[in-house]
Amino acid sequence: MLGSNKNRLLKALVMTLTVIYLGIFPLTAIAAVESPVAPASFSTQQAAVDYYLALVEQLDVTTAINKSVFYSGPGNRKQAEAYAIAEDKTTLEMTVGGKVLDDLKLFEQGSPLTPAQATQVWSRLSQRYAQQAAGDVFCFVTGARPTGVFTTVELPELKKNRKVGNIYNVSRL
Predict the structure, then answer these.
(1) What phi and psi values does residue 144 have, to the nearest 5 degrees?
(2) Which residue of 11, 102, 140, 142 pairs with 71 in a disulfide if CB–CB is 3.0 to 4.6 A?
(3) Side-chain half-sphere of 119: how many Cα atoms within 13 Å?
(4) Which of these, 53, 21, 22, 16, lies nearest to 37 by C-alpha position?
(5) Which DSSP letter does residue 151 get?
């Protein structure tokens, strides 16, 4: 029991120092901290959402020109990641910031967020990823839901983004 309390205190200390560091060095902080530790608990559900939305604004999701890969729909993450690795491209989760958020497991049991709140946080990171894309982008979206993040957030942002050239729908490897 004592070890558990020490662990919680250590996590809280690391989080506090991370937040202070983010305030001083906002963009370099995430590269220095592989996976920020969330506070042990939040006073309200809204406090948890606000925390993660603020974190998302600091995460680095940049990719090089012609390197962005998007996916949505059953089985498409695996295909998109295999394609990205084979073609030297990048999915959102392969960026520094995407990996940080993915490692937080916001959709899993024990997350301080509801599934709807986790979707809200990921939607904002996805929006930022689409906004920074440049050149041709590659999408694995067969079977994507019309109400999903790709259709409602990423695709509209890609279409508005003047730096994006072609948007390719890659259906199979």
Answers:
(1) -65, 140
(2) 140
(3) 9
(4) 16
(5) I
